């Protein structure tokens, strides 16, 4: 693992302010141009940067600085770090254990049926497969199509529920919203233009006529009883 200087400009600011090193020595140690170090010394560059002590960080010793101050031709050497930080691994295809590779076609079939919005690249990231295998399972040309059973890849341990939800969310973000089913309210733009019909006065019920009808019915009831 390559050893890199932490915060080169901040280190250069500290070396300019606290040592008698030449601009070339500081530039070589901090991987800067000598003119940039001169600009730092003149206050034209790195004005808002606080100097960082490389001795406190364990990247340089005071004896090394003293030797370099006595010999302008001496170049400072970066000390090896006491703690090794592993380099970040490059993200590649998902590794599937041998014990679970036989379940991968079942997981692909489940994804194809239950999440048709997923692209081939997303399915490949989830279960670690190839585009040709996905096409074969979609087209039912896979050599074992007759025996495949759709199985949730999360249950099989091929991916996590978080990864699955993330890929489904990405695939659904660009899809149009589903049309609402059943009766719905009209948009406000349409209802504002609709004319309100006034009630027809002639169509309204006449209260007097209603009461007169009820009175005639009541008078007719006793006559019927007398006839009986």
How is this fold's topology laid out?
Layout lengths: L7 H11 L4 H8 L3 H8 L20 H9 L33 H11 L5 H8 L3 H8 L14 H4 L4 H13 L14 H6 L13 H21 L1
Helix pairs in contact: 1-2, 2-3, 5-7
Protein model, in words:
The protein is an all-alpha fold and 228 residues long. Among the domains are: 8-70, no CATH class; 98-173, no CATH class. It has 11 helices and no strands. The longest helix has 21 residues, at 207-227. The chain starts with 7 loop residues before the first helix and ends with a helix. The relative contact order is 0.07.
Spell out the key features of this protein.
mainly alpha, 0% strand, 228 residues, 11 helices, elongated, single chain
Short characterization:
The chain is an all-alpha fold. The chain has helices spanning 8-18, 23-30, 34-41, 62-70, 104-114, 120-127, 131-138, 153-156, 161-173, 188-193, 207-227.
Strand count, sense and closure of the main sheet? Answer: none
Morphology: elongated
* Termini gap: 119 Å
Record field, number of beta strands: 0
Kindly state the percentage of residues in helix: 40-55%
- Determine the mean pLDDT: 79
